[in-house]
Amino acid sequence: MRDVCVLASDKRARLEIAVAVTTEVCREAQRAHSSGTTSTIGLGRLLTATGLMALTSRRLGTTSVQILSRGRIGQLFADSTESGEVRGYSRRPELMYPIIPKERRLERASIGAMVAPGRVSVVRSNAAGEYGQSAAPMANGEIDRDVEAFIAQSEQIPAVVACETLLEADGTVMVAGGVFVRAMPDSELDALYALRDRVIDGRLAELLVSSEDFPTLLSRIAPDAEIVEEEKRIVWKCRCSLERVLGAIELLGVQDLAEIADKKEPTGVDCDFCRTHYEVTAEQVMAIFESKIQARG
Length: 297
Fold this sequence. Notes:
This protein is α+β, with helices and mostly antiparallel strands. It folds into two domains: 4-236, Hsp33 domain (3-Layer(bab) Sandwich), CATH 3.55.30; 242-296, CBS domain Like (Alpha-Beta Complex). Helices cover 35% and strands 28% of the residues. It has helices spanning 23-33, 37-55, 112-115, 144-154, 189-199, 203-210, 214-221, 242-250, 254-262, 282-296, and strands spanning 4-10, 15-21, 61-69, 75-81, 85-90, 118-126, 131-137, 159-167, 173-183, 226-227, 235-236, 267-270, 277-280. α1 (23-33) packs across α2 and α9 packs antiparallel against α10. It is globular and about 65 Å long.
């Protein structure tokens, strides 16, 4: 199944439902960071959850979700535009626990021991550059449960978040996807809980592996749902560029710029998200330094 997100509605139960396949997104993330099993699973779940949050927000802007862990994984970060362009990174991409036994690779892997305890921090920015930030404690370090707990606390609405990243025997991404369900006013919560039972505790993993196409996947997750919008793309895409790097350097103080320019050597900058390496020449740094001096008069 190709990467796509579909928005649907169970009108009788008054549930808003989003289902996404994110296999290629998670493969691109793994390739970008050469990540081990734990980081691949954790970042994959976070990329999927963040993309679902952004695509269901109904507003222009960016949604960023950060996992601040006191466990071994340290930090996971993902952000997504309202058009489904996602990116992210792990501060410990090399983590290889758990090593998934070949006979259990189709099951949901638990990574909570490597992630919890910690906090989930979410920043939402709009097209005007305004932003709001909120945070909540982790639930158990499994990422999707943590995002679900954040939504319950911050938005005060019943919701379901289930995300999976399953790996091949060699550790590469086999399939990934997620579900995000919001209850509307006067929702039938029994229907919400029944849907939740169909996707938690590894059941979504089974559905992703066994469903031959997206309509089958959606019908198994939410049998009474009707698609309400055209499918949306969800893609791995970094927004870094040399221009953005130069813009970041312009934010440095005059003293820092002088020290960098004085070395008369290129300055290397690596993008956290896609690992692209940029070289900023001494002449470019000097030009920024001189423009700041001139602006001071």
